[in-house]
Amino acid sequence: MFGQCSNAKNNIKIHTVDKTFRCELCDKIFRYISQLKIHMRIHTRDKPFKCEVCGTMFGDGSHLRIHAGDKPFKCDVCGKLFGNNSHLKVHMRIHTGEKPFKCETCDKMFGVISNLKVHMRIHTGEKPFKCDVCDKMFGDSSHLKVHMRRHTGEKPFKCEVCDKMFTRSSHLKVHVRIHTGEKPFKCEACDKMFTRRNNMKRHMRIHTGDKPFKFKVYDVMLI
């Protein structure tokens, strides 16, 4: 493999299939030849861009800019800055709502291909991320990260009003409604408002008569 990589520059063959460019070493497909050339540096280990401060070398000039804190590409909608134009283009889908990547199993759409790949694990059952403490498996590395806080006790999200700490930002968001009085969930039957969706669903059983929990009643003889 190393010999193959070292001779990669001499063995690059560009194949065009429907105006796309394929890497001969790993079969990855690119839309533009410039992207393929940058990608080839992974195989050749060519890193022509050097940080003048710490000497770290990079194969992509945009990676050097990110490393240096230089973010010349700005979102015109929200002002967020990016180290390269491709990251800005992906970000813009948040504002435009564009979702070009489709799950062939359930037709769900995604704005980023990496999110589609993570989603596919729901269908395949793949769980490549393992907790080293309890061996529980996860399909997403972020879920493992949150899970680990159960073992470490880490609670990085703090309520600015009462200083209560939380393991998840979503838990903090719900908690803050206690202080703000916000109740975003409304009962369609009686207009009662709730801070949590689960509380509203539980309340709805009053109107629907739904009793999801069944209990056996035993005859008890009192002596």
TrEMBL record:
Keywords carried by this UniProt record: DNA-binding, Metal-binding, Nucleus, Repeat, Transcription, Transcription regulation, Zinc, Zinc-finger
Primary location: nucleus
GO cellular component: nucleus
GO annotation (BP), single: regulation of cell differentiation
Membrane-traversing stretches: none
InterPro entries according to UniProt: Znf_C2H2_sf, Znf_C2H2_type
Domain annotation C2H2-type: ranges: 21-48, 73-100, 101-128, 129-156, 157-184, 185-212
Entries under Pfam families matching the protein: zf-C2H2, zf-H2C2_2
GO molecular function, one term: zinc ion binding
Intracellular or extracellular location(s): Nucleus
Entry's family note: Belongs to the krueppel C2H2-type zinc-finger protein family.
Protein name (record): C2H2-type domain-containing protein
